[in-house]
Amino acid sequence: xxxxxxxxxxxxxxxxxxxxxxxxxxxxxxxxxxxxxxxxxxxxxxxxxxxxxxxxxxxxxxxxxxxxxxxxxxxxxxxxxxxxxxxxxxxxxxxxxxxxxxxxxxxxxxxxxxxxxxxxxxxxxxxxxxxxxxxxxxxxxxxxxxxxxxxxxxxxxxxxxxxxxxxxxxxxxxxxxxxxxxxxxxxxxxxxxxxxxxxxxxxxxxxxxxxxxxxxxxxxxxxxxxxxxxxxxxxxxxxxxxxxxxxxxxxxxxxxxxxxxxxxxxxxxxxxxxxxxxxxxxxxxxxxxxxxxxxxxxxxxxxxxxxxxxxxxxxxxxxxxxxxxxxxxxxxxxxxxxxxxxxxxxxxxxxxxxxxxxxxxxxxxxxxxxxxxxxxxxxxxxxxxxxxxxxxxxxxxxxxxxxxxxxxxxxxxxxxxxxxxxxxxxxxxxxxxxxxxxxxxxxxxxxxxxxxxxxxxxxxxxxxxxxxxxxxxxxxxxxxxxxxxxxxxxxxxxxxxxxxxxxxxxxxxxxxxxxxxxxxxxxxxxxxxxxxxxx
Length: 535
Description:
By secondary structure, the chain is mainly alpha-helical. The chain contains 20 helices and 8 strands. The relative contact order is 0.14.
C-alpha cells in the first residue's frame, strides 16, 4: 500500500432507477452506472472498497488547507508540543466550544472512516462474495483490516469525547443515522472486542505490493494499548493489565527480536517505512504525475485531491496558515538528556538542515521555541520527499502505532501487577535502542537499575514526543488512574510559556472535548443527552 492508492474515488457511485408503471418504451432507459449489487465482481474491486477506509485517514494527516488542518487536534493538548502564539484554544482550552472547526472536522472524519469500514464489513458478512475470492485467507484478512481501522476510530472517539454514537453497522436510511450517545466504556469495549475478533483473522504479513496493511501484530499491539487504557480508567483493573500482557505475548517473536535493530530515526524515515518497529502507519503518497491539491480533501480522488502527509506545522512554510506553527515546550526540551539521540532526531536548533536555502521554509535562526524546530519526520533527508509543485505534501508515512509505544504500555501493565523486573526490561529495551541509534553508541539514555511509574511516564514523553495524540491520551488516563493530578497543574506544568492568564484548563471540563454543535443540531438523541459537562 506504500506506493499506490487503493482507491481513487472514495465513495462508490451507486445509481438506482425509479420504476414506472408505463408501457411507453421511451421510458426504458439503460443503466449508466454500476449497481452496488454487481460491483464487487473481483478481488481487485473488493480491494478498492477496503482501500477506501485507509484512504479516508488521509484527511487526518494531510494539509487539507480549505477544511482546517487537523494536526493541532492531536498535537497541541498536553505538555510536550506548544503553538507559536497564544490564541489556540486546543492548547489554552480557553473559549473551546462545539463550534471549533478542528473538533468538528475530526468528528466527521472518524465517522466517515467508520462508515466505510461498516459498508465493507456488511459486504464481507455471509457467503455472497465467497465465489469471488480466489486467494486463501484474503476474505478473513479483509475483515480484520476493517475491524482494526474501525476499532482505532472508536478508541479515538471514546478517548476524546466518551459520549459519541456507536455506529457498528452500515447506515442505509436517515432513521438509522440517528444514534444514541454511547455510555461508559461502550465504545472502548467495542473496539477491544472487535480487535479480539480481528487478530486471529488477520494475515501474519503481506507481500511487497501490500506493505502497510493491517497484520496480526498490529491487532495485538493496539490491544495492548487499549487494555492498559481501560485498566487506568477502571481502578487499575488487574484483569485488563493481564490481558494486555497476554496480547503482547502474541506479537510475533521475529518482530520483537528486530526491535533493537531499527534505529530511532529510521522509525520516521520514508526510506525505512513499514519496518519491523512500526505496526500501523498512514500510507502517504504523492501523485506520480500532475499535482496534488492541498486545498481539497481526498474525497475528490484522482488527480484533484491528495494522499500526502503534512509536516509544515513545524517550520516556516506559508502553507502552515491553516494549522499554525508548533514546536517543543520548554518542559519537553528540559526533560531530554542532551546526549540522548532522540533529542536531535526530534528537534533541531541552528543546526537544522535547509540545503543552502533550497528549502527556503527552514530557517536555522527562526527564533521560535528557543530556536528549536520539530523535525521528527523532516530531519535532513527525511524531509526531501515533497510534491514538486507546491512542496506542501510529503511522501513520508506518519507512524500511528509503534512497538516502542506498545512496549512502554506493557511496562505499565507489568509494574501495576507487581512484576517490576519485567517492566524494567521493557523500559531498558527502549532506552538501549535509543542510545544505539548512533555510532558509536551514546552514553544516554543509560540503562535504569530500577523502574517507577514516574520513569515510564517520562520515557513515554521522550520517546513519543510530537507523535499522534499519545501525550494527551496518556495524561488523561494517568490522571484517571491517580498517577498524576491534573487539577493541580499550572500553566508551567502544562508547558505553556505564554501569559499564564490565557491558560484556562478546568479538570472538571477539559478532559473531554465538546460535542460538535452540528452533531447536537442534527441528532435529536445526542441533543437530548446534552453537551459534554462544562461546555
